[in-house]
Amino acid sequence: MSLFFGIVLLYLALLMGISIVKSRSVKGQEDFMVAGRSVPTYKLVGTLLCTWIGSGSLLAGAGLATQVGLSELWMAAGAWVGIVVVFFLAGKVRRIAQYTVPDILELRYNKWARILGTITIVIAYTTIVGYQFRGGGFVLNLVADIPEWQGVILTAIFIITFTAFAGMLSIVAVDIINGTIITLAIIGALPLVFSSLGGTEFISANIDPSFFTVMGGHDWIWVMGVFFPTFLLLLGESNMYQKFFSAKNERSARTAVIWWVIGTIVIETAIASLAILAFTHFNNPLVGPEVFLAADEAERIILHTARYGTEVGIPVIGGLLLICAAVAIITSTGNSFLLAPSTNLTRDIYQRFINPEASERKVVFFQRLMVLILGIMAYLLLTQFRTILDMAFTAYTMVGAGLTPALLAAFLWKRVTVAGGVASIATGMGITFVITLINSFLTEPLVPANYIILPAAGASILVLIVVSLSTKRDGQEKWGRFYPN
Questions:
Q1: Which of 54, 66, 317, 337 has its CA 20 to 30 A from that of 396?
Q2: CA 173, CA 163: separation in Å to the nearest integer?
Q3: Domain CATH for 77
Q4: 428 lies in a domain?
Q5: Euclidean distance between CA atoms 110 and 422, whole angstroms
Q6: How far is CA 1 from CA 10, 272, 323, 433, in A?
């Protein structure tokens, strides 16, 4: 057994041990879904950071950076700007104190908004969980030479089991550890690689100067295509709202957002920079066939750098830390994005329509069952996409176009109506689904994954405005809790 594989097993055992211990504290749905609404600021920062920095950043974002340079950060910047907007909503979201985003949608609109919102989240989040499974397969293939498909299955089993034990209580408990590991590993690796490769001389001699320009040689259409999926996803991100509901008070929620945006900017910039430097080295045939990384495997560059870190100045202990960071990123994001849709199906379908009088014990059992079923769905979705980047953009667009316009309107626009909100959700979700389905049957996509957000979100917003202005204003019983003053 290799040293790297042994460290991965030890780290996973630590995380699972914490989850098992925390499972003893679950007394009912409030503990399982929102950690008893008692999460302090520092834990909230850790879990928000770990949820957002997932395989979308570690694999898809890093892979894109190797192709376009630092202009990849337009994709990350969508989240940064979204987090700043969220700062002004966090207190209000916590004040409403629901369990899920569909709770908010029904509160402001009606039961159909809840149902459509739940469907949107389930499709999008199981897709996101799916590429966490694939990321885990990459890791196990790299450190233990386990066939990738077997690594995907083993990762799926771990994430499903971990999430089912203690829900939000376990996720919040381990994410403060995960967040620390991620920050130390990524930020520590970058200066080591930069210095080892030769610093600015290496960059000027080997890297295209356009990699360090604002646009990277692209036009504004491309920029909007990569910026808006993450921006709109962040604003409608069900995990984020569920974690705000977990905060002990409004002040904790708002303070956590400030540190969250700082941490996200630093870590995602470091990941992109590390990917560019390391790929320039490992993509050179002169390094030798055993460590060479081909262009079509660029999404693995951070993992590859961890495994062969001594080639670029990272000591073995630094490589081990970086592998643990990768495991932390994949598992923490997988756990959170599996918990959120299971909460939606439990709260928004089972409790709301099937068994409103269900006991606390039945609710927790049903949610654990949903964790298992959704985990299997996430595994099956892996076969429907060409790359992790395509999966990420599709999932981001599903939420960003389907949920975000109606959700933001609930907080920011009194004139939005029930009909406008429901029509907006259906339009954004429907257009994203139809284009993705058509793309799956074509050799060349009808609309590339990173551009689907433009027609889908544009139509969703247009329908929201037109239908709302064309229908009768809602009464205060609909918007009163969103504008208490």
A1: 66
A2: 12
A3: 1.20.1730.10
A4: no
A5: 8
A6: 13, 31, 16, 44
